[in-house]
Amino acid sequence: MAAFTFTASSLFGSRITEPLTLISSKSPSMLNFERTPVIKISCDYSCLEVKDVHYRPPGTQINLLNGVSFSLPEKSFGLIFGQSGSGKTTLLQLLAGLSKPTSGSIFIQSYTDDGKPTQSPKSLVPERVGIVFQFPERYFVADNVLDEVTFGWPRQRGGPQLKEHLALNLQRAFNWVGLNGFSLDKDPHSLSGGYKRRLALAIQLVRT
């Protein structure tokens, strides 16, 4: 008879807090557990929270947004739609930190798997928000993909750690948008419409 012990520190983003010991033998009928512990799995996740946001441009008496509230979990997509002039672009500007709400709040909140907050809300940092325009190729400025993605990176000489950090960010961003193995010498304007949008996403992701 042999004993097998395993301890998992992560399982699809979850933490198992109790090791499990299994006692087994050659006979399936003799398979049994030495003990039956309660396995606690923690599945924390974060949400973008917009709570009762109002916005009135300075010097005016008209609200462009009135009581906007929604919650968007991480690794998910959200769709904002409405008529022209309904405030879609204004809301995106608030999320990007280009403007500030007249009232209400925009923050990141972490939750446990049962929906309970795990910590105090964190303000949404504008530097961690990227905007991809409908026609991103209009804003491409470089002659090749590599220069386009790294445009705006620190140009001063950095140490090995900074260079490694930037290289990892570049590789990660390209993997996320499906550009891994893509030629960095290509002219961004020569890409197809779909690849132009992938590149635009990579440009934003590489800065996070």
From TrEMBL:
<dbReference type="GO" id="GO:0009941">
    <property type="term" value="C:chloroplast envelope"/>
</dbReference>
<protein>
    <recommendedName>
        <fullName>ABC transporter domain-containing protein</fullName>
    </recommendedName>
</protein>
<dbReference type="GO" id="GO:0016887">
    <property type="term" value="F:ATP hydrolysis activity"/>
</dbReference>
<dbReference type="GO" id="GO:0042626">
    <property type="term" value="F:ATPase-coupled transmembrane transporter activity"/>
</dbReference>
<dbReference type="GO" id="GO:0005524">
    <property type="term" value="F:ATP binding"/>
</dbReference>
<keyword id="KW-0547">Nucleotide-binding</keyword>
<dbReference type="GO" id="GO:0016020">
    <property type="term" value="C:membrane"/>
</dbReference>
<keyword id="KW-0067">ATP-binding</keyword>
<keyword id="KW-0813">Transport</keyword>
<dbReference type="InterPro" id="IPR003439">
    <property type="entry name" value="ABC_transporter-like_ATP-bd"/>
</dbReference>
<dbReference type="Pfam" id="PF00005">
    <property type="entry name" value="ABC_tran"/>
</dbReference>
<feature type="domain" description="ABC transporter">
    <location>
        <begin position="65"/>
        <end position="206"/>
    </location>
</feature>
<dbReference type="InterPro" id="IPR027417">
    <property type="entry name" value="P-loop_NTPase"/>
</dbReference>
<dbReference type="InterPro" id="IPR050095">
    <property type="entry name" value="ECF_ABC_transporter_ATP-bd"/>
</dbReference>
<dbReference type="InterPro" id="IPR015856">
    <property type="entry name" value="ABC_transpr_CbiO/EcfA_su"/>
</dbReference>
